[in-house]
């Protein structure tokens, strides 16, 4: 017989951390309380309406939505995105059990089944937990009597007298099904949530859920493999029974494992204490060596100080004697008073030598000792580096190195590393990272991720920030030294996702899109060659424009892309939605010179006219160069306006401040920024001429991690 108290953790809702109340089965097969599902969805809707997450949890204190889910709400609600085409919006639900976004479909919460089996088990657990608390009759006059039975058809509990009154003999109610006192009332027939008047009589093996015959005939399960409910019941019950019987048959083996684990717990405690003691002894030895070195250094400094002070004091006394009526000068003055020549010569000869030395010392004064102790500065740079790498014995475990070329920052961070050795000597790796902050740099807390591969994806990093990363390998209980820290920078704003628009203004004769609409290539083919036959000197060639399929109404956004090295001319930037028509009708005909604006002199007015008539904000790229536009406040020297083209270029649009910036997306360095009119919906814009190609930077996913592992 199953002990109800032993299965308590299986009966706890992952959202509210309490016993399940009317649990619903999610498509991912996890269970969540009906009330919790509603509160989480309401929290999402409130967050979208308020544009933030500050008030999203105030109305539902029993629900704790994960920080990653709330961060996703904030980014979406602040984005203000609008699509060109209407797309049916599906209800996404962040499952608190597996932390994944689950698509509930068009019916949302109404399309979920209620888990009556789990509900019954929870009720049995509650009854076992409150055995001393009786369930009272719902129909007795105060004071109510203790109930003796519950009617499943009436969903109520009765004492013996009230049950006879409300279920008189010979009536339809007398045929109602009754059980012992309970508060868990479940329907006799399970109805289909899609077709509320139909009972479920089949089981979809693809979706792993009960369905009705209408779901199979014309619903979303039309092409799925289904079986009868009785067959599914028999099959699943046999499988579950066999699995349970197998586990029960291994009861002795499980107990042996538990005994072994208890022993391992004790051994771990004992060995850890021994390891702590050994580590303490090792550091005490180091501390003893350092104390001896410290004492020797202090003694040497003290001895040198005493010697220097003695020399300087003697020199000071000698110079003190050079003063009038004092010391050597006073003595010489007294000798000069001697009148006997023989006595004077006898004394003055030696005195004259001393006077000459004093005179020379005055001409070239030099202290008898140095006051600085530069020779006594302790050089601990190498020792500090060695101590910084102080760790447990690695037994030859290679130190991993973070590969900065394969690592990249975009909507998430993809960190990849490799070992210098040919073989992968580590079983697992631990990647640590923390945000660089000048104020908290010394007290920064490293966040840790355990990885079985040699790359990992990190999400929920702050925008416009720098992060330090390091990694080390583990083989059993042995670890390698930490790798060198690598600093990477996140984009200055949330990543904006879009595809190239193949409808609005797209010229399929000149431009070629890939199937996923993430790459566009300019084909300098026959139209340009045919047009060049009548091209005159000074005529403009055409630019082929293409925009993103998603617009921006508010907020700050960032996107990145690659320009092929062979590209002759590419322009990138943003365009307002109310000027798109002007953009695509502003191209110049290569066969007609009537648009030539050359005034016949080099006044520069042509460039000013051309720039002032543009209905968009673009910068020019090409021939592996980035050209900073000419501005009144910008550099006048043409050479200073030409920069090497980054391998990945980024655009940051701030609609609230009316500014657009162009970045080196590798190091997130701002190359150029200017003001832009954001009164309308803004779209990413690109223009290509000649042979050129642009590839949008794609979002980082778990597949990137697997790809780098394969490499």
TrEMBL record:
Ranges of residues in domain Fibronectin type-III: 399-493
Region (Disordered): 51-88
Subcellular location(s) per record: Cytoplasm, Cytoskeleton
Domain named COS: residues: 336-393
Residue ranges of every copy of the B box-type domain listed in the record: 187-229
Pfam name, any one: zf-B_box
Entry-linked CDD domains: Bbox2_TRIM36_C-I, FN3, RING-HC_TRIM36_C-I, SPRY_PRY_TRIM36
Residues in B30.2/SPRY domain copies: 478-705
GO cellular component entries: acrosomal vesicle; microtubule
Keywords: Coiled coil, Cytoplasm, Cytoskeleton, Ligase, Metal-binding, Microtubule, Repeat, Transferase, Ubl conjugation pathway, Zinc, Zinc-finger
GO BP terms, alphabetized: acrosome reaction; spindle organization
Single GO MF descriptor: zinc ion binding
Stored SMART domains: BBC, BBOX, RING
Entries under InterPro entries matching the protein: B30.2/SPRY (IPR001870), B30.2/SPRY_sf (IPR043136), Bbox_C (IPR003649), ConA-like_dom_sf (IPR013320), COS_domain (IPR017903), E3_ligase_FN3/SPRY (IPR050617), FN3_dom (IPR003961), FN3_sf (IPR036116)
UniProt feature coiled coil, ranges: 258-285
Compositionally biased intervals (Low complexity): 55-70
Alphabetized PANTHER family for the sequence: E3 UBIQUITIN-PROTEIN LIGASE TRIM36, E3 UBIQUITIN-PROTEIN LIGASE TRIM36-RELATED
Similarity-based family: Belongs to the TRIM/RBCC family.
Protein name: TRI36 ligase
Gene, per the UniProt record: Trim36
